[in-house]
Write a structure and sequence with these properties.
By secondary structure, the chain is of the alpha/beta class. It has helices at residues 15-27, 37-57, 70-85, 98-110, 128-136, 159-168, 240-255, 257-278, 307-310, 313-319, 339-344, 347-350, 365-379; strands at 3-4, 64-67, 89-92, 114-117, 142-145, 172-176, 195-199, 210-214, 283-284, 298-302, 322-323, 354-358. Helices cover 41% and strands 12% of the residues. It is globular. The structure holds pyridoxal-5'-phosphate.
């Protein structure tokens, strides 16, 4: 049996998405910037997708800027905030994705800016009092970047609360919502968010396509220089088929949100209770063992398995055809370990192997049972 429980790394494309991507590839190869009929058709596809995505998220079409995905969107917002909006203080957390953390380090080398990190507790919760203190004591132009759903431990940030705090101190707020878009509802018109990042491959869309939400009148200048695509902010011929595929994926995600959420959540619940039957001492990392404050799509667990034996766990799961993640997906196979778990775990838990299992609507209860049996067999 092959089991794919690594949906936080990437998701399989839906059949309907593949169909819409391939039909655009077959029928519409024009360059959207061309003024002839081929170009106009391609442009129509893009603008229909932009409008559709904006509607699904309650944003305005001109606030959706297509990019190559989460990493580019994160880099775009942080870079533009510094170069175009005179932001000199960037505040984030130590458990953000590397697309944020490494971009911040890069910016610090180029510009005279300050980067501060808000405190977190041993569950990965953001200390909002500390955030407020950082904002209060700094008079400079600031931007806060905090992720919506943590890709490793699943913690959900209260966007309303954090955005309100930021705006109270005249600070811009960006959220990396790569793990949230397509899995949770967004009312962008009302949320106190200035910028947001998203990637289609996390909600059963194509890879290499995503978007930045940039609130109206944000006054950003080009991030990539060249043609006038994407309101001049992000030059380059648009990936028409991928944009259409992303719209299709998001449309289906929101059409079926409640039903699919129920299904995926029941997989997680079954996984959790079966796992605790086999390993009563297992510890869930962050809030991933809990409802509502953690995403229903993943669970991250530290297992009471000796260090010597743990070295063979990956190998065992791989042999059984099971795909899951040790720490963050982007670091699978790397020996440096997860910066998120390093930041929150006690020394004892750090010596236990931690695994992230992330689910989608294409998974089944039988697959959950198979994985639990494989873990039990390994520990025996
Ligand atoms: C929270 C988060 N941000 C950013 C990214 C990067 O997105 P992309 O792979 O589309 O560049 C990921 C992907 O793992 C992610 O989970």
């Amino acid at each position: 049996m092959n089991v794919y429980f690594d949906n936080a790394a990437t998701t399989p494309m839906r059949k309907e998405v593949i169909q819409s991507v391939s039909s655009v590839m077959e029928e519409c190869f024009g360059n959207p910037s061309s003024t002839h009929a081929y170009g106009r058709t391609a442009k129509t596809y893009i603008e229909t997708a932009r409008k559709g995505i904006a509607n699904l998220l309650h944003a305005a079409p001109q606030e959706i800027i297509f990019t190559s995905g989460g990493t580019e969107s994160d880099n775009m917002i942080l870079n533009c905030a510094v170069k175009d909006l005179d932001v000199t203080t960037l505040i984030s957390s130590p458990i953000e994705h590397h697309a944020i953390l490494h971009a911040l380090e890069g910016l610090k080398k180029i510009y005279k800016i300050k980067v501060a990190y808000v405190n977190i507790d041993n569950k990965g919760s953001i200390d909002l009092n500390h955030l407020e203190k950082l904002l209060k004591e700094d008079e400079s132009k600031k931007l806060v970047s905090l992720m919506h759903v943590n890709n490793e431990i699943g913690n959900i940030l209260d966007l309303q609360k954090v955005g309100d705090i930021c705006h109270q101190y005249h600070t811009l707020f960006h959220t990396d919502a790569v793990q949230g878009i397509g899995h949770f509802e967004f009312e962008l018109e009302q949320l106190p968010i200035d910028f947001l990042s998203s990637a289609a491959h996390k909600f059963h869309g194509p890879k290499g396509i995503g978007f930045s939400f940039i609130r109206k009148n944000s006054k950003l200048e080009p991030f990539i220089h060249g043609g006038s695509q994407e309101r001049g902010l992000r030059a380059g011929t648009e990936s028409v088929h991928n944009i259409v595929g992303m719209h299709k994926a998001l449309e289906i995600a929101y059409l079926n949100l409640n039903e699919e959420r129920r299904i995926v959540n029941s997989l997680k619940e079954h996984f959790k209770s079966s796992l605790l039957n086999v390993f009563p001492e297992a510890q869930f990392n962050g809030y991933s063992g809990e409802d509502y404050i953690s995403t229903y799509t993943l669970i991250n667990v530290a297992l009471p398995i000796s260090e010597e034996k743990a070295g063979l766990l990956d190998f065992h799961l791989d042999l059984k055809g099971i795909a899951c993640s040790k720490g963050s997906a982007c670091q699978s196979g790397s020996s440096s370990g997860s910066h998120v778990l390093n930041a929150i775990q006690s020394d004892e838990l750090k010596s236990w192997p931690s695994l992230r299992f992330s689910f989608s609507v294409f998974n089944t209860i039988e697959e959950v049972n198979y994985v639990i049996n494989a873990l039990e067999e390994f520990a025996a």
